[in-house]
Amino acid sequence: MKENNTTRLVQAEYRLLHCVIAHRECLDDARITDTLFVHPSARSIFNTVCDLNKRGIAITKAELLQSCRDIGVTPNVIDTIFNIDDSDPSLDTILPDLLNEQLKTKLVQKLDLLKESLNLDTDIDTDNVLRQLYECDDLVLHNAKNKSPLMSIEEWSNTYIEDLQQRKQGKKYTYGDLNLDEEMFKGAYPGAITTIAASTGSGKSTFVLNLMNNLIEQNVPCMYISLEMGAVDTMDRLIAMRKGIPNDELYNQGNIDSVIESVEEEKAELLSRNKFYFVEDPSIDLTKLRSMIREFKQRTHEDYCLVAIDLLTQLKGFNVSTNKGTSNAMSIELAMNDLNALAKEENVHIIGVVQFRRDSDSIKISSLDDLERARPTLGEIKNSGAISERSRVVLGIFRPKMIAERFRQALTEQEQTALDSMNDVMEVQVLKNSAGNVGRIFKYMFDNQCFRLLPLVDETQAKIDALAEIGIDF
């Protein structure tokens, strides 16, 4: 098998050499370089052809034999190249064939190494097996990238029509939230990034976990990567949310047996929803993230998934310490560019959770009327330039009561009384939306004991929507 692959690859290289000799204008094609030739003899012949052409010397069999004598190429190789029967050689067919043979050869080599490791009289090294399989995956992906990105009008139009047909059939990528799905026309579509930003303690992790819980219920392929909160703490919140158990009860010794029973019931209930995975790993970088996404796809047999990362900027590569010689802003920009490319190449939608700058937390509130001053803006996201530019959607989270509680002592007695009766409402504002409107605010009752969010209906907006449905522009 290995010899057959090698023979086919050599033949493909010789065929390309025959083409550039017969049609020397092919040497001007930017795709044709010596890196295309794996075998040293074929690469040497190509460089000799280029040198003769540059010097204006006719590339005959005799001239090539003479020129190649010093580099150890045998006459029978030159004869083989000149005697190839290819009446109409075309780079558009020769190049794909050559790249295909190269890919086959590399894959066979990788699989041979994997086979050798499995023949050893030892236990299976699962990390090594996965690494070898990922490397095969990388080879296939790299080969796909080498295909020309140029799209003709016909190809472009056909791709767009196919997308329109899917829209007609109602295909949409859900966020796990009815409000977001309604406002974001394209949904959590693959190849894009959504950023969720909030100040410290505003409930951004709770909001994302509610999205994940809804996606789990719908069995939508999704993965939650928690770089800030551990697996146990996150499960505390998920169990509180799903079973309605107040968080403090999860630490009541006398209640632990019933909690374990509830967890066992919930585990049995969720076993059929097998398209969700949780990750707790503080050492994740973009390379490892790509590997995890591919492992997720292999396990779930899905090509798409929604990946939530909390906190995004804790990924290795998003800070100066892992990008020496660059500023913090430049590190963020480079990392966001790479993350954006990863989302497109891996066909995933990424939800990145980030924080607002610390100075946004220092706004002083002396009256409940001042609360609006604390509402976050797009510019208050840390390194907002790079993050917001690469994000198709940016959502800002704001909890007025939480902010007011920080400055309770600065309020009048009357305002403190009003604060006590104030509902804890989480407001999620659309700060950026590349495929729709911005500024819309969605409100949720925030249950800080069970970490649940209950969507609230905005009566004013509901009236406007109702009038719009009957053709009245409010």
Largest sheet: 9 strands, mixed
Beta percentage is: 5-15%
Number of helices: 17
- What are the segments in which pLDDT stays under 50 over at least 5 consecutive residues? none
What gyration radius follows from the Cα positions, in whole Å? Answer: 30 Å
Give the SSE order as H and E letters: HHHHHHHHEHEHHEHEHEHEHHEEEH
Q: Please state the average pLDDT score.
A: 84
Descriptive notes:
The chain is an alpha/beta fold. The protein has 17 helices and nine strands. Strands 3-2-4-5-1-6-7-8-9 form a nine-stranded mixed beta sheet, with helices on both faces. The model has no long low-confidence stretch (mean pLDDT 84).
Write the SSE topology.
Layout: H1 2-22, H2 40-54, H3 61-68, H4 75-82, H5 91-119, H6 126-145, H7 153-168, H8 178-183, E1 192-198, H9 204-218, E2 222-226, H10 231-243, H11 256-270, E3 276-279, H12 286-300, E4 305-310, H13 328-346, E5 348-355, H14 384-390, E6 393-398, H15 400-406, H16 413-420, E7 425-433, E8 441-447, E9 452-456, H17 459-469
Parallel strand pairs: 1-5, 1-6, 2-3, 2-4, 4-5
Antiparallel strand pairs: 6-7, 7-8, 8-9
Helix pairs in contact: 1-2, 1-5, 5-6, 9-10, 12-13, 13-14
